[in-house]
Amino acid sequence: MNKIGRNDPCPCGSGKKYKKCCIDKPILEIEEMVPRLNYENSMQHFGSFWTYDEVNQISTEEIINKLISLGIPFEKETFLEDIEKFCSAEELSDNWFTTFKVTAKGRDEDFPWIAAWILWERLAPSNKMCMEQMSDLVEKGYEYMEKNDSRSASDIWLDVWEAIKYRTKPGFKTLDYFDNMFTESFFITNFVQDLADELFNAGSENPAYYEKCIKYCKEFCSYFPEQSGTIIHNMRTTIAECYLYLKRVDEAKKELDSLIRDYPDNPWSYITYGDMYNNFVEGVPKDFKRAREFYEKALLFAKDEIDKQIIEDKLKDLN
Question: CATH for 131-317, among 1.25.40.10, 2.40.10.10, 3.40.50.12780, 2.70.40.10?
Fold first, then answer.
């Protein structure tokens, strides 16, 4: 059996290109699917492709000259126009293969894709990221999160947020477009909520991150006002909590009042308000009577058993 190219049909029989299917699977697993695939040849093949690190060590001029030698007539101006049309370096590379008589074979087959990725990073404005860049930064952010380094995770992810904002068109009201765009890279709905959480956590170390969290959550609600589920409610709750930690009580009350007005059936609209009066943060006047009123109101709307238990525990703590 011939060596498998990234753009060849996947040997598993899925009908997808190999690069979008089993390329990340262990060689042994692929051997089991395709017994005729020679192990020694496959190992040689999989180790022969250009890597990101290899191409990144090459100067921009050398990368461009290499593309030209492969039949891709690279022009910076055209490239910067193309990155407005395509979301990923892979899409741009595929377009090159479709448009031009690209001679990249064997080891060079991957070069146009990785070259497009690296040139995108080097030549495009910082907020015009390709999907590969964004995916890498999201992954790095999660690595920081696992190390409990919320500030570093937040800083990296805010760059991704700027790129998402740039790609957002006026007609977008939900994350559906980005959900489809990033389906093979990361879960956008998880990311936007994790960014809010990490910004909030970072605020305990540096209050400036509470300000950043407020700004981010407000921007999200403005860009995606019709996002389904509890995301918008959670963002607005986080805004109120940030105000409380910044001891901007009047602004917190205003946000909580609007939350109850817009989500009167959501128990968490009342729980957060009750928490404000129940020793939420130092410096905010306690009022256990008012806290009880909000918790009892929350209990009227709570349907989830876990929510009910949380509210009942808060009421017990008031006694």
Answer: 1.25.40.10
